[in-house]
TrEMBL record:
Residues spanning the membrane: 215-236, 248-273, 285-303, 315-335, 347-374
Cellular location(s): Membrane
Chain sites annotated for binding heme b: H214, H250, H283, H319
Keywords: Electron transport, Iron, Membrane, Metal-binding, Signal, Transmembrane, Transmembrane helix, Transport
Domain DOMON residue range list: 43-169
InterPro entries given in the database record: AIR12_DOMON (IPR045265), Cyt_b561/ferric_Rdtase_TM (IPR006593), DOMON_domain (IPR005018), UCP037471 (IPR017214)
Database matches in CDD domains: Cyt_b561_FRRS1_like, DOMON_CIL1_like
Record bears the keyword Transmembrane helix: yes
Species assigned in the record: Canna indica (Indian-shot)
Residues spanning the signal sequence: 1-23
Requisite cofactors: heme b
Cofactor: binding details: Binds 2 heme b groups non-covalently.
Protein name: Cytochrome b561 and DOMON domain-containing protein
A GO term, aspect molecular function: metal ion binding
Amino acid sequence: MPAFSLLLLFFFLLHSPASPATAHCSTTTFAKTYKKCINLPTQGASLAWTYHPLNATLDLAFSGTFISPSGWVAWGLNPDSPSMTGTHALVAFSDPSSGGLLLLPFVLDSSVKLQSSPLLSRPFGLHLLSSSAVLRGARSVSDGAAVQIFATLKLSPNRTRLHHVWNRGLYVQGYSPAIHPTTPSDLASCATVDIVSTATEAGAPPPDALRTAHAVLNAASWGFLLPAGVAVARYLRQRTSLGPSWFYAHAAVQIAGILAGTAGFALGIVLGARSGGVEYGLHRGLGVAAVVGGGLQSAALFFRPKTTNKYRKYWKSYHHFVGYGSVVVGVVNVFQGFDVMGLRRSYWKLAYCLGLSTMAGVCLALEVNSWVVFCRKAATEEKMVVAEAPQQQQEVAVKAKV
């Protein structure tokens, strides 16, 4: 029952929307004052602008924050749709040569998602008249440093609905921005804004029901059920009063864990096929290793020798080695999954850590108790052997005389 309650809590936390406090947008910058502004729906970003209908020019200022001293912040326009592919972007980052703030134009075509080659700077291409970037309240790029990107564009007559795209990344390779985080919030960093009415249509976040199901199934199976099944086998089998009940409990928990883990792995394959070139090599490799180990454990049950068979001890060694290895790989991959989902510092990861540490604490107490019982039993048997030794010597002496 406690495990079921913890699972419900974990599922609830995964579905709980984040509600960070966001400041109101401002029409005033150090350079000029704009007429309109809005808060963008993600990353705490905002946009201020002035539209000049007589000559169809747009002055705007995008405000964002860095998430790494070696990171980047970008804003751009997509002429066709509110999506990354096809966006003409201005990217701000620290110049590797001088250390000053640098602003370069890029065009994001479909090859960007595949990451087959470094992203190279290309002309903006949307009638960009001028552009610049400046840090706010900081002398150099740092984690949390605020930046403003300024641009003046010549628009097509009567075209006032613009598809804005923005994002930020952790590092830059030379002069090439690396891939940004792929959390649902980061993937939804786009919006269509009418610069006359300020009407905003936020880009729909990608469906994350599969991601949530994948996370819950794998955290429940590899993260809880399978380690619990190992603990049942190790500590309950020592209680002779339970008879074979420990084995049935161990088998039931492990079967449930393997089934849930296999379902979670299948969802992971589906998510990988839909990721559009985004790959998580370590997470995928650990997942494959855990599933293969679990499959070998399941297959080994069909070849389990009888207790009187001379090969039984080798089978037990194999069963223990593969079982413990699969559990360790599975738990490590659960933590890797938190990083992939952008939940490295989150309440749901904290809830998982609390549950896992509670299980580890119980196992540690049971392990200490089992060793205490073992040592006491060994000491008692040694005393019995010492007490019986003189009597055996007397019996041998009597037989020798006879």
